[in-house]
């Protein structure tokens, strides 16, 4: 055990701005008993997380398992708020990779079923991937100059792909409708951007304004999530109104045609009767419809009045995970 303590001191000495607190003489390492080596750092909480990441790597903590020395007889852990943040970042990265294995194929299948064309289905997906990649890069850059919660990254990937695909669908569907009305490709792109493109812009601004209200709560973690969501929605609007027209100009002909082999659902020239009737009913009594929708939404939001906010980060780890065992 004493050798393990000396090893930890050597590891800590390799990291700048980290010093080992003196161990009182009466506290000596004992076999088969936990022993804590206290470190003092010269950084804020963000620095603590970075140091914890470095320490975890140096002592061999990975995959939810502690580091080990002395032939596995001594287990090494890193504990503290910084270590908790480092472990959560590692787990989130793994969860995102697992989710991406399913999200993209499922979205592609749904888009193919909707458009009946691999080319048309690929455009929204490509836009979504570009949006998420750019947004993640911005969030990571911001994390170097300010404190960003570990939950900001999954917020970006979760919302970004959905919003970007959704916005691009508005434009792509309108583009197809413009072509079906007899316009050429350039006119169809211009018409789609003048209508659906404008809708996407105002929709994005509305979402951003709504997300900005989260800052009023005053919780740092929620503020970071709101920042991530605002960034990715803004990027989704930007890519939908700039990248999407360029992609349509290049691949618009292929996106407009249905594949003979992937023709799952034909493109309807007219609105679905149910939604047309529903819209007519809403427009006939707008104030009554708005009142009914408001009552329904307020009823759904009522439980939030009894919401208790707490830090439950530790409970998100499995009981066998090294951070919980530590």
UniProtKB/TrEMBL annotation:
Subcellular location: Cell membrane
Broad class of where this protein is predominantly found: membrane
Any single Gene Ontology cellular-component annotation: plasma membrane
Pfam families: MMPL (PF03176)
Membrane topology: Multi-pass membrane protein
Stretches assigned to the SSD domain: 118-250
PROSITE patterns per UniProt: SSD
Spans through the membrane: 106-139, 151-172, 193-217, 229-251, 286-305
Database matches in InterPro entries: MMPL_dom, Mycobact_MmpL, SSD
Keyword Metal-binding: no
Keywords linked to the UniProt accession: Cell membrane, Membrane, Transmembrane, Transmembrane helix
Domain of life assignment: Bacteria
Keyword Cell membrane carried by entry: yes
Full protein name: Sterol-sensing domain of SREBP cleavage-activation family protein
Natural source organism: Mycobacteroides abscessus subsp. bolletii 1513
